[in-house]
Amino acid sequence: MLELFSLGDTGWGDEILRGLLVTAQLAVTTLPVGILLGFFAAFASLSRFVPLRALGVGYTTIMRGLPEILTLFVVYNGVGLLLNSLVQWLSPEAGSIDFSPFAAGVIALGMVFGAFAGEVLRGAFNALDRGQIEAGRAIGMTNSQVFWRISLPQVWRFALPGLGNLWINLLKDTALVSVIALDDLMRMTKVAVGVTKQPFTFYLLACLIYWVLSVLSELVLAAMERRANRGVRRA
Amino acid sequence: MNPMDVIVTYWPRLIDGALMTIRLTLLGAFIAALVSPWLALVRVNTATFIQAPIRVYVSFMRGTPLLAQLFLIFYGSGQFRPELEQWGLWDFFRDPFNCAVLAFALNSTAYQTEILRGGILGVPRGEIEAARAVGMTPIQVLRRVVAPHAYRIAWPALGNEVILLMKASALASIVTVFDLMGRTRQVFSRTFDFSVYLWAALIYLCITATFVLLWRFAERRLSPHLSAADSTAAARLAELEARP
């Protein structure tokens, strides 16, 4: 039984670890993309300029209402078609190109993360104490100083629990990219199942690995929240 | 093909898929709604060691991808085919629709249990003490005081959970259930017309929007005494904000 999971040619341990590495790479690459998009979405939906606000609210509302897998297919097939017609247009004799599933995964999951993060961050900006910002201005801070020294550290504190949940969702959503043929944990598990004919054993192993990642994330996030809230008096 | 041609030619398939999506979602959510209140009660009212299995179950369901859970049930059951055949359960597990509903119900049970637990904990202690003081039995307290109030508190979160489940039900297409996502992929593979995905997105948004409206309507019916108070509070807030 255990030799099934060993490293090397006889077992599937190394293949599954390689898949885990792809899953981790995907999640870690997507996170900054998603957070950046989230900030843009939050700024847009808090803007006083109506078209920009409509764009921000529309993006977060529509994106949160669609299945993640649909977004993934839209990005994978849509951007793929777009890239190909672009290449055809630029140089008609060039053959068709393949859109990388990893890039599609980062873009699609980043867009989903960004939409939810936009809502979390909007709430966090709204929770800021206006008086502190006015106080910052009053002692002569520039707008960017107010943002970096007063707003952001507290937005971070307010948004951390929400962003932490989104991170765990992101980790789980990476499993979807196995459907567009990226060799992540889920797909390597599928390969192992195809050869060993032991689907329950291997899918259970995959579940346990994801579970460990989620529980570890929860522990780290709890520690981060404690750190972000140091110096805040308990009510 | 232009986008209109796609919808004109393939709308029966897409509607058929949308109905399947709704069926999957409602069945999964309904089964979970039958089981989760009992688990939530155990989670609130019993000793730690009795709760432990439920905690582990909820943590597992929330900490692993639904896709992996679905594969574990649908493909994983194949590993126990002889045993399942012996018990007459193989016909159930062979059908991807059944496996999808089972996976969704198990997953949603975990989330609904946590939501209802929050609802039960949100019922003010004084209400329960008052009910006991007028001589209600524990069952009566549960039926007449705790359950109605807990559901009122949990209602918006339960609605969110059903919407999340509706979105997640698109995963059923991966185990060959022809829900809206499955039909959409089928049409795309025939036409290579990208616009079918945009139609599917529109239909998903319509399902979500309809559901949100129905759920809010039900919420007003559940808490009629709050809507009047709500509107006066809202009016007072608007008045405050209007001041210079």
Overview of the molecule:
In chain A, 77% of the residues lie in helices and 0% in strands. Chain A is mainly alpha-helical and 235 residues long. The model of chain B has no long low-confidence stretch (mean pLDDT 89). Chain B has one domain (3-242): MetI-like (MetI-like fold), CATH 1.10.3720. Chain B is flat. With 244 residues, chain B is mostly helical. The A-B interface holds A 62, 65-70, 73-74, 77-78, 81, 168, 172-176, 178-179, 186, 190, 193, 197-201, 203-204, 206-207, 210-211, 213-215 and B 59-60, 62-69, 71-72, 75-80, 163, 167-171, 173-174, 181, 184-185, 188, 194, 197-198, 200-201, 204-205, 208-209.
Key traits:
heterodimer, A: 235 residues, mainly alpha, MetI-like fold, 8 helices, flat, B: 244 residues, 11 helices, 0% strand
Helix content of chain A: over 70%
CATH class of the domain at 24-184 in chain A: Mainly Alpha
Oligomer status: heterodimer
Reading the helices and strands of chain A in chain order gives: HHHHHHHH
Number of helices of chain B: 11
CATH topology of chain B: MetI-like fold
CATH architecture of the domain at 24-184 in chain A: Orthogonal Bundle
Structural class of chain B: mainly alpha
Report the principal-axis shape of chain B. flat
Structural class of chain A: mainly alpha
Radius of gyration of chain A: 22 Å
Short description:
Chain A is 77% helix and 0% strand. Chain A contains eight helices and no strands.
Write the layout of secondary structure elements.
The complex is a heterodimer of chains A (235) and B (244).
Chain A: H1 13-46, H2 50-65, H3 68-90, H4 101-126, H5 130-138, H6 143-173, H7 185-196, H8 199-228
Helix pairs in contact in A: 1-2, 1-4, 1-7, 2-4, 3-4, 4-6, 5-6, 6-8, 7-8
Chain B: H1 3-45, H2 48-63, H3 66-74, H4 81-86, H5 90-94, H6 96-121, H7 125-133, H8 138-168, H9 180-191, H10 195-222, H11 224-242
